[in-house]
Amino acid sequence: MALSWLLLILLALAVIGYFSGRSRALASAGGNARELHSLPSYYGYNVALTTLLPALGVLIVWLLMQPMIIDNTVSGLVPDQAIPEGSDRGLVMSEVRRVANGLDGAVASEAMTEAQAQNPDADIEALTAALKDAGQVLTQDITQPILMAAQKYRSMTSNGSVAMQVVVLALALLGAAFAYVRTHKEFRARNVVEQGILALLLLAASIAILTTVGIVLSMFFETLNFFQLHSWKDFFFGSTWAPNFRGGSELSILPLLWGTLYISVIALLVAVPIGLFAAVYLSEYASTVTRSVAKPLLEILAGIPTIVYGLFALLTVGPALVSMFGNGGALGVGWMASSNAVLTAGLVMGIMLIPFVSSLSDDIINAVPQSIRDGSLGLGATKSETVRQVVLPAALPGIVGAILLAASRAVGETMIVVMAAGAIAKFSGNPFEAMTTITTRIVSQLTGDTDFASPETLVAFALGLTLFIITLGLNIFALYIVRKYREQYE
Amino acid sequence: MMNQMTNVERSVDSKNIKIAANNVQVYYGDTHAIKDVNVEIEDKTVTAFIGPSGCGKSTFLRCLNRMNDTIDICRVQGDILLDGEDIYDKRVDPVQLRAKVGMVFQKPNPFPKSIYDNVAYGPRIHGLAKNKAELDEIVEKSLRRAAIWDEVKDRLDAPGTGLSGGQQQRLCIARAVATEPEVLLMDEPCSALDPIATAQVEELIDELRSRYSVVIVTHSMQQAARVSQKTAFFHLGNLVEFGETGQIFTNPVDPRTESYITGRIG
Amino acid sequence: MTDISQMPDAAPTAKPKSGSLFEKDARTKRRNAAESRFKMYGIAAIGIGLLMLVVLVTNIVTAGTGAFQQTYLELNVELKADKLDKKGNGNIEDIKKVSTFGYAPLIASALENEVVQLGIQTDLKPKEMGKILSKAAQAELRNYVIANPDEIGKAVSFRFLTNSRVDGYMKGRVTRESIANDKSVSVEQLDFVDQLRDAGVLYKAFNLDFIFGSDASDQRPEAAGIGVSMLGSLFMMFVVLALALPIGVAASIYLEEFAPQNRLTDIIEVNISNLAAVPSIVFGILGLAVFINYMHLPTSAPLVGGLVLTLMTLPTIIISTRASLKAVPPSIRDAALGVGASKMQAVFHHVLPLAAPGILTGTIIGLAQALGETAPLLLIGMVGFIASNPPDGIVAGFLSPNSAMPAQIYEWSKRADPAFYERAWGGIIILLIFLVTMNTIAVLLRRRFERRW
């Protein structure tokens, strides 16, 4: 029975529960709804929710836990000798899963009977041939321990899902019965239903926490794995990034961090002055009409997906810069060899960040009370003197916060650098050279043929965690500054 | 009320006109906010603008140093002459005008800077001091004139926003007099202050009269009676009556003025 | 003393203490110059920003519109029975045995006929003439024959795609000079193309297949379309909408209306504002680790993409929903509570409907953001997958591997043949049309239902 059927049955039970609960409540009040403590529909909802929620909760937890438990059990069945040289338990387990899936597929396509699939003494060569005939993908030869494990895996999975279905349905029926029996005109159905809904609302709000926990945990454990395979000293303090899938990689974050920061600094050098001056003009000088036209137009830049900026950098800005600074370029300087360069990525990222800086600064400048501006103008200061000597200093903490938020954006930006920064990790001060960044390396280490046991892949999680911590730090600090700043004028 | 008024000293000895407004009209978009106002403000005199809320007295005050320029929809017609020169002439730079006609606002609005920098701000932008020593001197003189020197002389580097409301307002007055204005406009300077601070500021206004022409907008008739020599009563955008403070409060000509000062309108 | 009406017009004036207002002193002039300079900087900043926007948009439009046009060659192909149905029994299984390759001679001879009929003089051999057509032409012909076996033996008029170089030549991207080192097309072939164009059988036409078609392999840029990945995006958006909207609204209601002032609430709030600023690539890592490696959901599936984008969009939706809930004045809640409604009823019956337009606006903007997002999709395998077939059925739409619009664009931008770049820009035009439409709807909704309390 597929998951969707189980869900449909649960839903049907809930609907039936709703109507029966409702009618039972009405019946207990002799058909007079005014006699009831709550509106009739609440009695219905009560039954429906009691049917649905515990069952769904158990279902979700079961679905999340079952693979972990099965993996652990089955993995224990594979003897250490069965793990080939140069491989590890994780790889063998994925092979086990593949075989189990292959058996499933073969049985489903009737190339094999269930009994054949479960036969522990089956001839391995015949089985492999049968699986291949059935069009199942196998990467290596099946060995006896793997077959045993795969069969165990299959039986646990199928037993597990049968058990799950039984438990979930039983729970649903129990819940329905319990709520149905309790349904009576004195029963405070509304309060119970509202408690239930409140719990659901809290659950929804907690997803934010779950996401953060998920992000941290998913990267944390893989990072730990990485540091078991690779020295943490090299990661944090080494000087070379040279992944080598044959082993002996040097995986240091420092050259990547250098590239990331270099590009971010160029981006901020473009975005901050332009964004800030634009914000000052819009909030202090522009007429209402200009403002209502220019501000949304600028903000369009913020709504354009990064893939567009990436393409713009790759196909337009990069070649344009080469035609200016490259060999035989308009300036005849020959500084730039390829369109992939720090400058290309930085400039385009700067353009992307202009509206980000300008709308944040605009908000912050507008939060400076008008009375302070009047005070300055009333003393005979010009507008620019007022802005430079009174408004901007007053807004400085907020603007610093905005710049930090923009910096965090720049550090975490992926598409532009993936497409336009290049792939060479090095320490260099030349903005016309290609360099690489943390995000670029995460993408390249995790795409393509990924083997989740090699340090070359796992390093991506360590990079991700570092990136997460850097941006989180920047964000928390920036939000703290901005909040403090706002409180000052409230 | 009458008792208080008799206590106020009134002396208007010279008829030295500092600001003359002729047929001034002010529009906010389509609203006719000030209607045909004529008034003469004398030098070294405190002139009070009184009237119910929304009568246009603050608007008119802001016309006197062109602070209304910062509001897009505001239009001013008629002549306002400062020392015989039309301040709305297109040759006039409002920045230069405001250096001569200083302003103190309703809510104390010190800059988020140190006390010293608050006072030094005007002299700095107008280039009134040649060196640090001169600037120090101006700051001290202004703070003394605003009667706040003794309270802040030991903490000139402390932020101006950290002072109490009354101190902040006197700091703002010090900031305004530091640019050596000829006229000082005050827009309800005591409305955000407690009675003690109000008394201090009122005393200060009386002292400032010796050097400047002071125009004060106030909600409080008692305050007008206490500090001013001339009073103008505004009602619905019209200047209803203008004259010696004593005369306005004891013997108003216009029935509307009488209604207002006896509390029937407002 | 005097009434205003009797006031004298002229009054003695005091002598000004300092200089006249009518003369600007040197310092004022200097300060005014600084003022106008400062103002110019502001105008320049805005100008640069807007200029960038204009450059970007012009760039997209000029580089991308080409993708909506494609060069076609009209040919009358005789579906020779002796080649296609060798047994002559019309059995569809036998017809299917003729491979794509077997259709090449038909096209070649059709082209030869055409040349003779139009009186075109060329030194090209028929095989080389055929090379101006796309490799997709044979497959197209075969699909047609298999779909209409009755037509065998007749002559049917076809509109074939031409090769991407010919297409590039027609669009001005490829010139006789630029093909000097290009083995896939020769100057003679381009002359031939000119003759065909003059004869009116080779022309550019609107390319519907780009919008609705599927991606094609590296060798056939002229046949690549964005339609299938558009479906992938669509299925992802269903997932995002179905999950992010209810969860986001529920979370916002809890935080805005019911949450007690305690540590948990604080933690949730801080979490949400931070999640909104977490780089999107990190969500991709989360998706890879949790949904694919741990839960074993299928790689490249729109379901997984949708789940990742949901987590990424949630903070945006929560923040905007809370803002619209906050905008409903407390008096509405008080009124409902006052007539005996419970807090829950007040929220669900009164506050939520009033906040609905705002919530909808926020959701659309969140969806638009998710639609354009690329980085997380890279990690869950939605890039690099060639979306050559549309999913069959709804379940397959969610679960079978697919690409998504931005991922498809990225994929094209990585390919070697510059003809794909035109596709990438064209894809961006389509993506931006979606985004602009969504944002316009959001703005209109906001205008239409904006309420001042």
UniProtKB/TrEMBL annotation, chain A:
Q: Taxonomically, which superkingdom?
A: Bacteria
Q: Where are the bilayer-spanning segments?
A: 43-65, 162-181, 196-221, 256-280, 300-322, 334-357, 458-482
Give any Pfam family that matches. Answer: BPD_transp_1
Where is the ABC transmembrane type-1 domain positioned along the sequence? 257-478
Which UniProt keyword terms apply here?
Cell inner membrane, Cell membrane, Membrane, Phosphate transport, Transmembrane, Transmembrane helix, Transport
Could you confirm whether the keyword Protease appears in this record? no
* NCBIfam families assigned: phosphate_pstC
Sequence similarity: Belongs to the binding-protein-dependent transport system permease family. CysTW subfamily.
**Name used for this protein in its record:** Phosphate transport system permease protein
What is the scientific name of the source organism?
Answer: Ruegeria denitrificans
UniProtKB/TrEMBL annotation, chain B:
Per the UniProt entry, the Enzyme Commission number(s) are: 3.6.3.27
Q: What GO biological process terms are annotated to this protein in UniProt? A: phosphate ion transmembrane transport
Domain annotation ABC transporter: ranges:
19-261
Tell me where on the tree of life, at the top rank, the source sits. Answer: Bacteria
Presence of keyword Acetylation: no
Species of origin reads: Ruegeria denitrificans
Main subcellular location of this protein, as a coarse class:
membrane
State a GO cellular component annotated for this protein. plasma membrane
Could you tell me what this protein is called?
A: Phosphate import ATP-binding protein PstB
Q: How does it sit in the membrane?
A: Peripheral membrane protein
User: Could you tell me what this protein does?
Assistant: Part of the ABC transporter complex PstSACB involved in phosphate import. Responsible for energy coupling to the transport system.
Q: Which UniProt keywords apply?
A: ATP-binding, Cell membrane, Hydrolase, Membrane, Nucleotide-binding, Phosphate transport, Translocase, Transport
Tell me which InterPro entries the record gives: AAA+_ATPase, ABC_transporter-like_ATP-bd, ABC_transporter-like_CS, P-loop_NTPase, PstB-like
Name where it's found. Cell inner membrane
Q: Name one GO molecular function term.
A: ATP binding
Automatic annotation (TrEMBL), chain C:
Annotated ABC transmembrane type-1 domain residues: 230-442
Annotated membrane topology: Multi-pass membrane protein
Example of a GO MF term:
phosphate transmembrane transporter activity
Q: Which SUPFAM superfamilies match?
A: MetI-like (SSF161098)
Give a yes or no for keyword Coiled coil in this entry.
Answer: no
Where is the major localization of this protein? membrane
What keywords sit in the KW lines?
A: Cell membrane, Membrane, Transmembrane, Transmembrane helix, Transport
| One GO CC term, this protein | plasma membrane
**What transmembrane ranges does the database entry give?**
40-61, 230-255, 275-297, 303-325, 346-368, 424-445
Where's it found, cell-wise? Answer: Cell inner membrane; Cell membrane
Gene3D superfamilies reported for this sequence: MetI-like
Q: Name one GO biological process term.
A: phosphate ion transmembrane transport
Any Pfam family:
DUF3333
- Using the UniProt annotation, give all residue ranges assigned to the region (Disordered): 1-27
Report the PANTHER family cross-referenced here.
Answer: PHOSPHATE TRANSPORT SYSTEM PERMEASE PROTEIN PSTA (PTHR43470:SF5), PHOSPHATE TRANSPORT SYSTEM PERMEASE PROTEIN PSTA-RELATED (PTHR43470)
Family designation: Belongs to the binding-protein-dependent transport system permease family. CysTW subfamily.
Q: What is this protein called?
A: Phosphate transport system permease protein PstA
Species in which this protein is naturally found = Ruegeria denitrificans
